[in-house]
Amino acid sequence: MAKLIQGETGEWEIVIGMEVHAQVITKSKLFSGSSSVFGAEPNTHVSLVDAAMPGMLPVLNEFVVEQAIKTGLGINSKINNTSIFARKNYFYPDLPQGYQISQFEDPIVGEGVIEVDLPDGTTKEIGITRMHLEQDAGKSVHDQHPTKSFVDLNRSGCALMEIVSEPDIRGPEEAVAYLSKLRMILRYLGTCDGNMEEGSMRADVNISVRKPGDELGTRAEIKNVNSLKAVQQCIDYEVPRQIEILEDGGEVVQETRLWDPAKNETRSMRSKEEAHDYRYFPDPDLLPLHVSNDQIESIRKTLPELPDQKKHRFMDEYGLSLYDASVIIAEQARADYYEKVSNDNDSKLAANWVINELLGILNKNETPLSKSPIQAEQLGGLIALITDNTISGKIAKDVFAEMYKTSKDAAAIVEEKGLKQVTDTGAIEAVIDEVIAENPDNVAKYKGGKDKLFGFFVGQVMKKSQGKANPAAVNELLKKKLS
Amino acid sequence: MSELTHLTIDEALTGLKNKDFTAVELTQAHISAVENARTLNAFIVETPEIALKQAKESDKRYAAGEARPLDGIPFANKDLFCTDGVQTTAASKILEGFVPRYESTVSQNLFNDGAVMLGKANLDQFAMGSSNTSSAYGNVVNPWKRSDGSNAELVPGGSSGGSAAAVAARITMGATATDTGGSIRQPAAFCGIAGIKPTYGRCSRWGIVAFASSLDTPGPLARTVKDNALLLASMAGHDPKDSTSANRDVPDFASAMTGDVKGLKIGIPKEFKLDGMPEEIEKLWEQGIAWLKEAGAEIVDISLPHTKYALPTYYIIAPAEASSNLARYDGVRYGHRSSEGANLDEMYSKTRAEGFGDEVKRRVMIGAYVLSAGYYDAYYIKAQKVRRLILQDFEKAYETCDAILTPTAPSAAFAIGENEDDPIKMYLNDVFTVTANLAGIPAISVPAGLDAQGLPLGLQIIGKAWDEEMVFRVGGVIEEAAQFSAMPKGLTQKAA
Fold first, then answer.
1. Contacts of A48 in chain B (CB under 8 A)
2. For B131-147, how does the pLDDT look when each residue is reduced to its tens digit (9 = 90+)?
3. Cβ(B179)–Cβ(B128) under 8 Å?
4. Would the CB atoms of B240 and A93 count as touching at under 8 Å?
5. Most buried by CB count within 10 Å: which residue of A245, A427, B30, B445?
6. ipTM
């Protein structure tokens, strides 16, 4: 669904490619043993290597290599048997070595593809160009002193994966869908926590526009895009800006622009900052990284069921719609929860209850699923009571509300409050008789032809039975009594 | 008993074991010698307290019968090796006052084997140079003098000039050094001592200030081949902290010196016969060939066709790596920071302009240039290709020979100030040594004779990768044949 933008000179197509930096889940840094945990006091997770003391040398963290291979397999990409670490040279106070160790010409992961789910219920494949490993920089702090800047090296040397997409993305919805799916896959794999607020996942968005069918236009690279919302917003800002320039006869400048979430705009970074010649060359302190096919295959065996596999299985096995399946697989814990609820129950009914009722109230209360007062087995129990006609769907909602409040089992609540559905015709007939006796006028009107009053009688019977009367039995008996 | 400072390491170890003298006595003799030879400017920092403390511990171990392989042997530590609690400068102002809180793996290995550190030896700044005239802490003076009575002060060679001068002047028994393009072997030749550049990866680079990572090779300097074998055995070994360090057992190098080269094939590379090579150098080379022939070795002519490209290749790769390795000296975390500079960029450029010497600046600029966009393929990539060809030259040559014999340097020591106006001429000092660095293979320089001015000259034996044993074996035979017994003139005068 390539969304086209109507300009003054005709329609424009948006072309987007993304570079996503994802911090690898690992105890220690890419080339040193210091901790990579977020949120410590400044400069407490800094080894001699991270601070680039004279004579210090990098030693590759093998676990990070496994995580990278896992990720590469998770995004359906080729794993390169040989990759090379290279130095990207530039000066900055939060870059102690004066170079970042990255991978340039020979990354660990090559081409691949991700299937993304779009809001209109369709899917689209976005190509992956490559993924490489690199070091994070430290952090410059400018607000602690009137004339001095400080540097925090805790993040210096932390392992990042840079995942580069093909320019296959055609608008903000697709961009958001791509980033969401990528984050979902990384979380399933346990290779990145995807936490954009803490900066453990960051996106650079390359945006250009063109007339449909034309060659690729000149792109602007938007940096500092640190939430799904910001992805949407920066594209919404940048696209009209570029179209306006082009329609006024100008040219888009190839440049790096910064997303300013406060002002809701992108702006050009100083040209000085981007006029870098990084003088990449292979890092002579590190040998080429070789991974064998055996190693790759043994890691492949450890992969969990990935979101798309799960989605397709849920559609095939449980008969869920693409939409329901997509919602449920969005988080691994959610999918696991659903499967427990579904267990011996009607799987579509289970999906409805999980999506509409449970996720509804959790979202409303901003409670994560892990803190849900209702356990999956308990929700399964409630659905079982509906299926075997112990309670009606309507009563079930009351029971659900009570479960959410008290964390009690559905059966216990039903028992305690006497909410069991009444199917005994004698009992229902007695209630109907009472209702008929109390409403002689309406009985007369109904019999006189006012058919619509039937609903009134059903309502009264249900009210008197406190909702417990079986609705089908009520209908049948009422018709008989009123005829 | 001869004067303690004139003993070899091997002799001193015997004397210590036999309780002829104590480690403290041996150390004290060297501390005094260091003090008396300060005009050589061989040390940037002297550490007599550390030396005496270590010597006392050595004596305790001798008394307890728990002596270690180098217990009580004094050594000079090139000031490129980081030393825990002792200033480490790489002979540059940019690191003045820098005191590491860690010990380089190689010097730690020496300490673990009982060696005693006399101080931090002077060197060319960041190990860049062949004359030890680029040190921010002054020139090192070669203890040797020309016999013409001119009394001109000569260079000790470089970059390990302080280490070599100290060993030659009998103010230390051995020294650590590093060899990136010849920085062990050329000063060894200039000072009339022996020095081996082992195979790349044999000794850990961890804790040594980096110059050119793919070439930097730590190794020893000492007066005899055997002393080199003893020192290297302690310095070498796998270090998981250096990814380029090899996980191999360290052989008993000294026992490889069998004195027997019968049947060995010694290659003589025709490309090392340079136009305009001094006659004395050529004569020495002929002499070396004759000695090995007499000892029963077979001499074979070999070809190393890419030799003529070695020097330009080296002067692309080494500066390229250096330009990046030296980026960390930026005034932000340690070392010198300019007090001027209105903004970050100015702070960087002023700090580095004030901190680095001319030769360092020259190489950083060359390095940045050859790595820059548009030039990278023409220079750096091409140099890497030539480097592979040079390695292949050696691999092919070793199909027909066991070791290669060449001169170490194209001249004897020159006077301080000579060659200073012409960097290219200075770079030519490395012409015979750089190939072994580019190929990563072991090579030793052995003192083999004197030139007409009475200055020492060295012969170089180059071996196959990981075959230091062959290098020591052939080197030992050359040493034995040469019977090099001359001593620096200044020294004999002082000793008298």
1. 102
2. 999 999 999 999 999 99
3. no
4. no
5. B445
6. 0.96
